[in-house]
């Protein structure tokens, strides 16, 4: 299965809510969910049946995958890893997803969306503890320092990002130095610090069937 290349706004419409996949556009009147609040496709405006229990579980899993930009096989691997850890499986799953480098770059305010963060990481614009990392799924650890590469800091793109990051507040488990475009991982997030609007228990129930 390849990377999703269609309009990401269709994903929000399919889930019936904003997944904030396009950054600032999602907060404007141009948001597709605001303009067309029904699923995409020829039957999108037709009568919708009440979803089954399985349907609710499936939609929650798909929504979470889309929020974090993770493919099906990757997502299942995260679930298996979360299930093997001590603690609550659903919360472990969300923490693993939050620890992805592309998500951390987004949370630090160094990208307008996770999709943009993934692209910037892919292009080698970030270092972790002084070493270039171009793998979006790289899992950060407590104490890691994420920084925009020196050669990228003076580009017009990161000058714009610096201006935007100054108005954003990172979550409590991260600290950011906007002037130097540097972030530090203070701790792993706990569930109360993760604002992703998903019911992770439905995902656990789906994979436990």
Characterise this structure.
This protein has helices at about 10-15, 30-35, 55-70, 70-85, 90-100, 100-105, 115-120, 155-165, 200-205; strands at about 125-130, 130, 145-150, 175, 180-185. With about 210 residues, the protein is α+β, with helices and mostly antiparallel strands. It has two domains: about 10-95, Orthogonal Bundle (Ribosomal Protein S4 Delta 41, Chain A, domain 1); about 100-185, Structural Genomics Hypothetical 15.5 Kd Protein In mrcA-pckA Intergenic Region, Chain A. It has a five-stranded antiparallel sheet, with helices on one face. Strand 4 and strand 5 (about 180-185) form a beta hairpin. The two termini are about 25 Å apart.
Instruction: Provide the low-confidence segments as ranges.
Output: none
Average pLDDT: 87
Proportion of residues in helical segments: 40-55%
The backbone outline, from C-alpha atoms, is globular
Query: Care to count the β-strands?
Result: 5
Q: Which CATH architecture of the largest domain?
A: Orthogonal Bundle
- Main sheet properties: 5 strands, antiparallel
Strand content: 5-15%
Radius of gyration: 18 Å
The order of strands across the largest sheet is: 2-1-3-5-4
Distance between termini? Answer: 23 Å
Q: Could you name the CATH topology of the largest domain?
A: Ribosomal Protein S4 Delta 41, Chain A, domain 1
Please indicate the count of domains: 2
Q: In DSSP terms, counting alpha (H) and pi (I) runs of 4 or more, how many helices?
A: 9
CATH classification, class level of the largest domain: Mainly Alpha
Give, in order, the helices and strands. Answer: HHHHHHHEEEHEEH
